[in-house]
Amino acid sequence: MALRGEPTARQLRLATELRRLRDAAGITGREAAASLGVSSAQISQIEKALAGVSEKRLRAMAANYACSDGELIDALVAMATDRTHGWWEEYQERLPTPYLDLAELEYHASHRWDVDFLHIPGLLQTEDYARALFSYVNAEFPPSEVDLRVEHRMKRRVIIERPDPIPYEAVIHEAALRIRVGDRSGARAQLARIQALSEADHVVVRIIPFDLDAFAGAGSAMVYAGGAVPKLDTVVRDGPHGTAFVDAEAQLARFRALFRRLESVSFDPDRSRDFIHTLIKEL
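^ thats the sequence. predicted structure below, dont judge the formating
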């Protein structure tokens, strides 16, 4: 079997979960290999996402690890046997890997939460807003590279625009709404897009106002992608040194609680729509 050169984030997550199940069972890699009649190297390759795993073998591994969580096992099987060729694959070797990983992650997500304080969340951005943002951040890029990133971002919006959209909730600080990434007309169009999307049944937008007292959570920006089961949720955070995919159970619980806290201090959806409408009139 040929080994993978660069596993995707989804393949790495499957491998991580299989390793976690084995560790929880207190079974060594050598013992797991012996019970399956394979080499230790094969177990290592599976747990490093360098090799795939069949449904039969995955279920045998889960049984050997005494995992009784049927929903989790079924979700892992779905990940292992998925043969989806997503639209993002056309960007391989054209964009950095995290771009592709995020598109694949959200394509398979059961729901999506965004929190942002300085920029409009990517799924809500207009093309002009995204272009202005990429052009500023990557000032050294030729127009063709900026175009590629904008095109990719616009295609990602499919998860909330397709006939079977996923539930989507965004908590946005007033600062992100007021910062003019582009010109005045672009800012107006961006706010109008958010307001229009917020009318959809599957979209909830909440605003955190400037005048909220005792608010110190401006460092809490996140993308939260729900998995087929809560244990397979993922948080994505951008930092100065790249994109981090967070999946440790304790960290996921922390980010769930943080999102609910931010949700609780923001305007409700109706008041948020009214607030955005007021901002549009001011432009």
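The chain has a mean pLDDT of 95.
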